[in-house]
Amino acid sequence: MQQPPELKDLSIGIQTFDILIEENRVYVDKTEQIYPLVRKSERYFLARPRRFGKSLLISTFKALFEGKRELFKNLWIDSSDYSWTKYPVIHLDFSGFDSRSVDSLEKDLIARLGDIAQAYGVPFETDGVTLTRALTVLVKNLFAKAGKRVVVLVDEYDSPLLAHIDDPAVRDPIHVLLKGFYTALKSMDKNLHFFFVTGVSKFSKTSLFSGFNNLSDLSAQEETATLLGYTEEELYRYFDGWIPHVATKLQEPVSTVKEKIREWYDGYRFSGNPTRVYNPFSFLTFLRNAKFSDYWFASGTPTFLLKLIKTSNFPISDLENAAIDDIDFPAYEIDKQELIPLMFQTGYLTIKGYQREPQRYILSYPNIEVKNAFFKHIVKMLTNFDSVKTYGFYAGITEALEAGDTDKFLSVLGSFFAGISYELQPAPSAPVATSEFYYQSLMFALLRFVGMHVHAEEPTNKGRIDATIETKKYVYIIECKINAPCAIALEQIHAKSYYEPYWHKGKQIVLIGLVFDTKTRMLGECLVEVLR
């Protein structure tokens, strides 16, 4: 989309602060929040989802500690009492290293340390040295030459681990290498002025958290809740020209576009601070393309999360209102992944509410982008259908439910399950829990992605409904069974009066009993009863 000449260029894909400023691109000034972090010698860790601005933050630190004050002209920190002292800086971006094996990672890291040594003109040997030795020599030589302690900036520290999280043969040796790396850093603490490390997750056994016992975790702190991502105030302040421009392209009122942007890309909350932030990557890409889409999710879905959901038989319907006692998660072991903490830390779930008694945080999907894309990928993982095939089923289901045509709905649903390869479905000998997870989760994800207003395992005063679907004219109450007479499903709906909460809505209530047959691996008997 061609932009008017008066609008500054966007910073999509620009992760280097120097380039962003020199090219006069839009920069959302976060230096007032950065100032308390850099004004004294400290050690910090910050976890945020991918593509949330971590690399740009690290690059901003680098420019500050290199004393490049000219780049900060007209930014908040330029008029503060920041000292602008120059320090030697070691900047390591772990997402850019070759982590196919522990050997290739160590080789790349040593080479990067050598490049830094060359840039500062200090002695360094790369042949036959270990990573810990190379790091120790570099820090000591930089300290000796500059006469100042060293700043160490580590970006995406867990990238090599996440790349092989489900492959212990590669992951575990890398884990050992990183443990030695952070142990070596800890031993040189007296030579360090500032240490800042970012990542997606907080893993133990890397010595990052056990070794640096003075490492301050900013991830769930209220003071840094908006350090990354855009607040609504920042959105309208820095992109006040762009949003009307896009609204014109979309032929919609500015107010409507703002509301849609909020629904699609806002909603992230990482602490007790109630202020929510927008996903910067998705928002900027939307401005560039003038089209609402799932940019963040499509930019790199971590397949290990989808696999973890499948292998743990975790009901995906329970993710919508997951409750946790504490969002300040302790570091956990990489070989014992916990789904809810990982979903929160990676950005697929966020804080939606807080309950005081008992104290707990309520998690759910942050926005339309994540929710829709997540269900789409769940369906694809469980069926291996291509997009053309799945959209055909989606259209048929939507049309049938909106029209109250249960025969067509059940026919399309039956065809959907019949088209799934036997290899992807649970074996007839699989535990009932595995079969229930597969069929119920797949049906729920399918209906959610179609856009239906679906409640799964909805609690009532007499039990939990498997699924409730609301359209403009109809309420469908669905009870699913595995290898059981379908009449039992309808009997349960009546016995527990699952339909009572919907009487007052004036819609036609339709009861549907479904049975999944694990022997044929298809949708079996179905019964329908219309109450009114």
Structural summary, described in words:
By secondary structure, this protein is α/β, with parallel strands linked by helices. The protein is built from 19 helices and 13 strands. It has helices at residues 17-22, 31-38, 54-65, 102-120, 131-146, 159-163, 168-187, 232-238, 242-250, 254-265, 280-289, 295-298, 303-311, 339-345, 368-383, 387-403, 406-418, 432-450, 486-495, and strands spanning 43-47, 89-93, 150-155, 192-199, 216-217, 322-324, 350-355, 360-364, 453-460, 463-470, 474-482, 508-517, 522-530. The strands form three sheets. It has a five-stranded parallel β-sheet. Strands 9-10-11-12-13 form a five-stranded mixed β-sheet, with helices on both faces. Strands 6-8-7 form a three-stranded antiparallel β-sheet. α19 links the parallel β11 (474-482) and β12.
**Cα shape:** globular
Spatial extent as radius of gyration:
27 Å
The major beta sheet can be summarized as: 5 strands, parallel
Portion of residues within helices: 40-55%
Q: What is the arithmetic mean of pLDDT?
A: 88
Ranges where pLDDT stays below 50 over 5 or more residues in a row are: 457-463
Q: List the total number of helices.
A: 19
| Sheet with the most strands: spatial strand order | 2-3-4-1-5
Structure class = alpha/beta
How much of the polypeptide forms β-strand, as a percent range? 15-25%
Termini, distance in Å? Answer: 51 Å
Q: What's the β-strand tally?
A: 13
